[in-house]
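Worked example 3 (structure in, sequence out).
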């Protein structure tokens, strides 16, 4: 990727991208303090799914840069993504980067009884939490890399999907890796299907336009860090 021209004035999008990156970096720098806080919270914890979700996720985030967001998605971001997914029309749904299932649980609540959800997660700890906490016969959970999504789906006899959502940080893939995954994603979608990535930065927009006919852009500020939600139509 070419370096930004320092003489070019910053756009609103650049400022938001910088803010997202800054929040992530600051949290990583405060790692020691956070580790201590997590331990203390565990000792005094009253129990409850939400606390467990948050602490487990935060610990995994500290160990694995691919997790990208500091906390699981907020209910505001989850609901915004769910609205974009058009679940009443989706028979086959794929989730890239399910973590321990904050988005997954809500999809299962809202999707049709006859629909199928394939949830893919790379981080072992988060994947183990996912399969322990989220049990639903309509879900297939896979520990794997979304860059192999075509092979993962084929193992289950699935070759097409109606809706694919993604929390995986595309910014961490190589330029070629991003294009390959977008190409695979577009190929896997049925005509009229949609891809809904939620991301901290706007870098994906021009690439989405290469592979999809229409791209809607929304911004959810009530999340840590704030996220863009893109709806790309095949
Ligand atoms: C920003 S988090 C989103 C988690 C969750 N879906 C949510 O909304 O809270 C991104 C997730 O993608 C996973 N991930 C990153 N790269 C991946 C890859 N190549 N394949 C599968 N999962 C990946 C990370 O481990 C992490 O759980």
């Amino acid at each position: 990727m070419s370096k930004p021209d320092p003489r070019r004035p910053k756009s609103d999008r650049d400022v938001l991208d910088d803010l997202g990156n800054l929040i992530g970096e600051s949290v990583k720098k405060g790692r020691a303090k956070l580790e201590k806080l997590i331990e203390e919270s565990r000792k005094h914890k009253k129990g409850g799914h939400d606390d467990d979700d948050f602490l487990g996720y935060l610990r995994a985030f500290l160990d694995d840069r691919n997790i990208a967001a500091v906390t699981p998605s907020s209910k505001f971001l989850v609901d915004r993504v769910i609205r974009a997914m058009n679940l009443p029309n989706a028979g086959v749904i794929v989730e890239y980067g399910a973590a321990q299932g904050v988005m997954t649980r809500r999809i299962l609540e809202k999707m049709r009884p006859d629909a199928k959800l394939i949830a893919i997660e790379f981080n072992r700890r988060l994947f183990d939490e996912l399969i322990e906490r989220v049990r639903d016969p309509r879900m297939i959970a896979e520990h794997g890399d979304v860059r192999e999504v075509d092979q993962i789906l084929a193992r289950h006899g699935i070759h097409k999907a109606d809706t694919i959502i993604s929390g995986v940080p595309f910014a961490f893939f190589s330029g070629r890796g991003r294009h390959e995954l977008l190409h695979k994603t577009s190929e896997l979608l049925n005509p009229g299907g949609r891809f809904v990535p939620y991301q901290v930065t706007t870098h994906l927009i021009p690439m989405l336009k290469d592979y999809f006919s229409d791209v809607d852009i929304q911004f959810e500020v009530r999340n840590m860090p704030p996220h863009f939600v893109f709806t790309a139509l095949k």
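Notes: Residues 66-69, 72-73, 97-99, 102-103, 120-123, 126, 145-147, 167-168 surround S-adenosylmethionine (CB under 6 Å). The mean pLDDT is 87.
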